[in-house]
Design brief:
By secondary structure, the protein is mainly beta. The protein has 2 domains: 217 residues, Immunoglobulin-like (Sandwich), CATH 2.60.40; 268 residues, no CATH class. Helix content is 4%, strand content 45%.
């Protein structure tokens, strides 16, 4: 009897170990074509075209009890013309006077209800765009990319809320609830060049006072991520992406004061200025070219002060818009850390070892390399091949040293002319799987340090999205006057991502000479780590 009990326990454990939760049935919605000018954004939905459109209903809980029928009714409609796609949402509420709403800055929702739509125009389950508003018409938008996903911090879909697009909306609170009306120009979207468009989409609604978040197509909590649990939009035909071209010249001027206790005069003023230009060009529906010439990032917020008592380098977030927009392809594998570009010259501290402090003083030593230009080309073909090319050129940097006796000045090079580049090929496979090749390269003029890193990544999932196998292998090569260094890293991870019982295991190895830090980021090499749970 005891043996039978043990056997039954083992069978139940094995069943729970390999059981899987099927994806919810994929809902569909057909969009209706309308004539241009048929809709006026006013948050009312009183135009005749709205009455003829198909509806999306039957919302269910996303949180806190996934799958349960939503407590309030939501009715969503979609129409489109040659210019944009329009979303109308009737968000019913039994207590409209209790609807939470607050006027805030864009992308900063606080104690408020909201509605959002998410589009996956290539149906790859890995990339999406979201647009949403509050009852006070506060807009928020995000870009999703599984390349930036991190389940450890709750960002399983790789959401980037810093992404912004130009689109239009209106909202109003009514006696039956509230209404959201969105106009998304095709210039804000990327979609394949084909006559009939089929997109994945989902709708989300937040009822703040109830702590309730609802979704149209059910998103099961037992399945990791939501991009693979979307509904479908049909009925969009014969649309074309408009010309996407913007050129933004700029002039920036500053007033700087420098104080040198040993100099005469001790306080000096300078008035530097810079001129440059930003360019964005949509080559076609899928590919975009971004470029910046002699950029000036003086308006970008500074980093917080960090007291770093560890022996490792501190990693900072990227705040420069050019390096945060459209970089999801380049961020795959963690081999690209954009803060390396325009960072401190590599020989910044060497200057002080070459100065005789009794007779000389360093009067100028730029702490940032001047970026001459940068460009990135990225997009994805209809066959699911993502292509990304990035290049940046930094001017040489020099420190100025002054002889305290004669007043004569000399220059010491702290950074040679430097070219930094990245290229990526990322192929989408079935079942939200992918394989990626990425290469980063740093070349410095003269007899200085050059670096190259090549990596291969893969992520494989089964049809039910219940198991995932992913891995990474990278090889770094550094050439310098001090000698050459070559190193490698490898990572393999297997996990069950669906079901009541989840498990996973991984192993990572890094050689002692693996070093991607000329254009990437690694705290420390020479590590071996295993995980299971």
């Amino acid at each position: 009897m005891k043996r039978n009990t043990l056997l039954l326990s083992f069978v139940l454990f094995a069943a729970s170990l390999f059981s899987q939760v099927p994806l919810a049935p994929k809902k569909s919605l057909a969009a209706a074509r309308i004539e241009a000018g048929a809709i006026h954004l006013d948050g009312q939905l009183n135009e005749p075209v709205w009455q003829q459109a198909s509806t999306a209903e039957g919302f269910v809980f996303l949180w806190p009890t996934p799958g349960r029928t939503a407590t309030e009714k939501s009715v969503i409609k979609i129409v489109y013309d040659d210019h944009a796609i329009y979303i109308g949402a009737l968000l019913y509420d039994n207590s409209p006077d209790s609807i939470k709403h607050r006027l805030t800055k864009r992308d900063e929702l606080e104690n408020t209800d909201w509605f959002a739509v998410t589009f996956d125009t290539y149906q790859d389950g890995q990339n999406a765009l979201q647009f949403g508003i509050s009852p006070d018409n506060v807009q928020f938008d995000s870009k999703f990319s599984l390349a930036n996903a991190n389940s450890d911090n709750g960002n399983a879909d790789g959401e980037d809320p810093a992404w912004d697009a130009v689109w239009y909306s209106a909202a109003s609170i009514t006696k039956d609830g509230w209404v959201a009306e969105l106009e998304i120009p095709y210039s804000a979207l990327r979609f394949p060049k084909q006559e009939d468009q089929h997109w994945n989409l989902n709708f989300f609604r937040r009822i703040q006072r109830k702590g309730e978040t609802d979704t149209w197509n059910e998103v099961k909590a037992e399945i990791s991520g939501s991009l693979n649990q979307m509904g479908r939009l049909d009925g969009v035909h014969d649309i074309k992406a408009p010309l996407r071209l913007s050129v933004t010249p700029f002039v920036a001027a500053y007033a700087e004061n420098q104080y040198h206790q040993d100099a005469t005069p001790s306080s000096t003023w300078s008035y530097p200025f810079s001129m440059g230009m930003d360019l964005k060009y949509g080559i076609n529906q899928a590919f975009t070219l971004d470029a910046t010439i002699v950029p000036d990032f003086g308006q970008v917020r500074t980093d917080n002060f960090v007291l770093n008592l560890s022996p490792f380098e501190q990693r900072f977030d990227e705040n420069r818009p050019f390096f945060t927009e459209g970089t999801e392809l380049f961020n795959k594998g963690g081999l690209f850390y954009s803060r390396r570009i325009g960072s401190r010259p590599p020989h910044y501290w060497d200057v002080y070892d070459q100065v005789d402090e009794t007779t000389e003083a360093v009067v100028e030593n730029p702490s940032r390399a001047q970026l001459l230009n940068a460009a990135k080309f990225s997009g994805r073909t209809t066959g699911g091949l993502g292509i990304g090319v990035f290049n940046a050129i930094e001017a040489s940097s020099h420190a100025t040293v002054k002889n305290l006796e004669t007043g004569e000045k000399r220059e010491i090079e702290t950074s040679p002319l430097t070219n930094r580049s990245v290229f990526v090929f990322d192929q989408n496979l079935k079942n939200n799987s992918s394989v990626t090749l990425i290469n980063t390269n740093v070349m410095r003029s003269g007899a200085d340090r050059d670096a190259n890193v090549t990596g291969v990544l893969f992520k494989l999932k089964n049809k039910a999205q219940s198991y995932a196998l992913d891995g990474k292998a990278a090889y770094s090569s550094i050439t310098s006057p001090d000698g050459n260094e070559n190193g490698y890293t490898a990572h393999l991870n297997l996990e069950k991502t669906n079901g009541n019982l989840l498990w996973g295991g991984s192993y990572t190895i890094e050689s002692d000479r693996y070093n991607p830090n000329d254009l990437g980021f690694l705290y420390s090499p020479n590590e071996k780590a295993g995980y299971s749970g």
